[in-house]
Design goal:
435 residues, alpha/beta, Aminopeptidase, 5-stranded mixed beta sheet, 9 helices, globular, binds zinc ion
Length: 435
């Protein structure tokens, strides 16, 4: 059983291993492989007998442990999260030469805080599709060297010393070399993928901050890291599934990690796709279910949609709902929004409150200020797509969508404990009744 420091350090290592959604899936896949899970292909016929399996669809992954007691209508306990984070991504024709510098053309993905990407040593990672004898194949690539830099304008050249407006088309290109480097961006990518430049047929490539994730502060009770939103939940969810697998809770634990949340989730692998429902149906069918059994299983299921939450910011306390203080190292967060930017209803809230009780961790309840627009997450989409009672939860952090984010070092362990209890409830009947 890992303690708070171990979980904090493990989360840092997880994040540093996962610069892109594709690397999240590969890394979680390795953790699952080591725990006896087997990867299945969606194009294959799946085994009839229950077991521990996962599928990967691009930057999304669904894993489950169906080797649990129960009949064909056994319900699911699902943890959802997203694998993507806002960042700067490489355009299709990236080579630019301007004012004696060689640039790589970048543009924002999702709601990145653009200022936070300036003056950082940036690496490069993602997926490349390359020509093969039979068609095309995917390769993961990553460069953990500082190959790119987006330099800020000197303050002396700015009309406004409080900061400059950043135009996403003009001001975010990465410097790659002084003068002409002699090799195109495609050449470098081809070298990394070990193919000829002409064999590079497509890419989804992005930058990442190279500063390592670590515990910080006078008492080292905080974590400084990129992509806490939402690899903080990918990590906690993976730990929870590994802990809950093989239990006798009467439900099938499922981990669903989706790409594309930061751009609305509507894609072939986002939360708005058929990925989760098609996997759940195939898992039920593998347990001998017919359509009625499958719908019964869904009706009894619960989903905790995990995404990071806003801790109360000490420099901007006025931006927070005053009666809903959220403390770092204060435990998991239940998120409620009257207008359903979060999916939480009373039944879902009860299920997560019971999980926190079972895990013996405190529960914090978040509401957004009524006079500020609230971001959303995969919870409402998953609830609408599956009809499964869904609760939006998270762990507290500051600086969401910055290239560097901050959270309490004690929170990952409490988040893992709560999600584990959610997947493996002591008394599953307590919170699955529909009214
Ligand atoms: Zn998020």
């Amino acid at each position: 059983m890992s303690g708070p420091v171990e979980h904090a350090d493990d989360l840092c290592a997880f994040i540093d291993a996962c610069p892109s959604p594709f690397h999240v899936c590969a890394h979680v896949g390795r953790l699952l492989d080591a725990a006896g899970f087997t990867r299945l292909s969606e194009t294959d016929t799946w085994p009839r007998e229950p077991g521990r399996h996962y599928v990967v669809r691009g930057g999304s992954l669904v894993a489950w442990a169906s080797d649990t007691e129960g009949g064909p209508a056994t319900p699911f306990r699902i943890i959802g999260a997203h694998t993507d984070s806002p960042n700067l991504r490489v355009k299709q024709h990236p080579d630019l030469t301007r004012a004696g510098w060689q640039l790589v053309a970048l543009e924002p993905y999702g709601g990145a805080w653009l200022n936070s990407w300036l003056d950082r040593d940036l690496g490069l990672s993602g997926r490349v599709s390359v020509r093969t004898r039979d068609g095309a194949d995917d390769r993961l690539i990553r460069i953990d060297e500082p190959v790119l830099r987006v330099p800020q304008l000197a303050i002396h050249l700015s009309a406004d010393r409080n900061g400059v407006e950043l135009d996403p088309q003009q001001h975010l290109n990465g410097i790659w070399a002084v003068g002409a480097s002699g090799s195109s961006f495609r050449d470098v990518v081809a070298g990394l993928a070990d193919v000829a430049a002409a064999a590079v047929l497509g890419w989804e490539l992005m930058t990442h901050d190279l500063t390592g994730s670590r515990r910080v502060g006078a008492a080292k009770d905080m974590i400084s890291a990129p992509r806490l939103d939402n690899q903080g939940t990918c990590y906690a969810g993976a730990c929870a599934l590994l802990d809950a697998a093989g239990g006798s809770s009467g439900s099938i634990p499922v981990l669903a990690l989706f790409d594309h949340e930061e751009v609305g989730s509507l894609s072939a692998r986002g939360a708005a796709s058929d990925l989760l429902v098609s996997v759940l149906e195939r898992v039920s069918l593998g347990r001998g279910a017919d359509r009625q059994d499958y719908l019964r299983a869904l009706a009894g299921s619960l989903c905790a949609s995990g995404d990071m939450a806003h801790a109360t910011h000490p420099n901007y306390p006025d931006r927070h709902e005053p009666a809903h203080h959220i403390a770092a190292n204060g435990g998991p967060v239940l998120k409620v929004h009257q207008n359903l930017r979060y999916a939480t209803d009373a039944a879902g809230a009860a299920a997560f409150a019971l999980a926190c009780e079972q895990a013996d961790v405190p529960l914090q309840r978040y509401m957004h200020r009524a006079d500020l627009p609230c971001g959303s997450t995969i919870g409402p989409i998953t609830a609408g797509r599956t009809g499964v009672t869904t609760v939006d939860v998270g762990a507290p952090q500051l600086a969401m969508h910055s290239a560097r984010e901050l959270m309490g070092a004690a929170d990952p362990a409490m988040y893992v404990a709560a999600l584990t209890a959610f997947l493996a409830p002591d008394s599953p009947a307590a919170a699955t009744a529909r009214t």
